[in-house]
From TrEMBL:
Superkingdom classification of source: Bacteria
Gene Ontology MF terms: methyltransferase activity
Matching Gene3D superfamilies: YgaC/TfoX-N like chaperone
Protein name: RNA methyltransferase
InterPro entries given in the database record: TfoX_N
Alphabetically ordered keywords of this record: Methyltransferase, Transferase
Location of the TfoX N-terminal domain: 19-102
One biological process term in Gene Ontology: methylation
Length: 109
């Protein structure tokens, strides 16, 4: 599955100042990792965000958000945000910052 290169570039620009960020192809898309922990990614036209188990319900209440479930088994602490819901830079930045903050709270891999 291809992924939205434009969305990936917008994510890359937001995270670009952090030297701890690396990129890796995953889930048929691209993932952005902070010290080895996935923070956000792009799959198809959508944004994957690692919010953590405690923030999942709050995140799901936001426009365009749904549980991350690619295999029939939902992943705890992960959500997917529809690409149309992150069309505005401010909204995208909020999601990226949330995923980045959660990944930064984890020990490096």
């Amino acid at each position: 599955m291809a992924y939205d290169e434009g969305l990936a570039e917008r994510v890359r620009e937001r995270l670009g100042a952090d030297p701890g960020i690396t990129e890796k192809r995953m889930f048929g898309g691209i993932a952005f990792l902070h010290r080895g922990n996935m923070a956000v990614g792009v799959t198809g036209d959508d944004l994957m965000v690692r919010v953590g188990p405690d923030a999942t319900m709050q995140a799901l209440a936001r426009p365009g958000a749904r549980i991350f479930d690619m295999t029939g088994r939902p992943m705890r602490g992960w959500i997917v945000v529809a690409g149309s819901a992150v069309a505005e830079d401010e909204v995208l930045a909020e999601w990226i910052d949330e995923g980045h903050a959660f990944a930064a709270s984890l020990p490096p891999k």
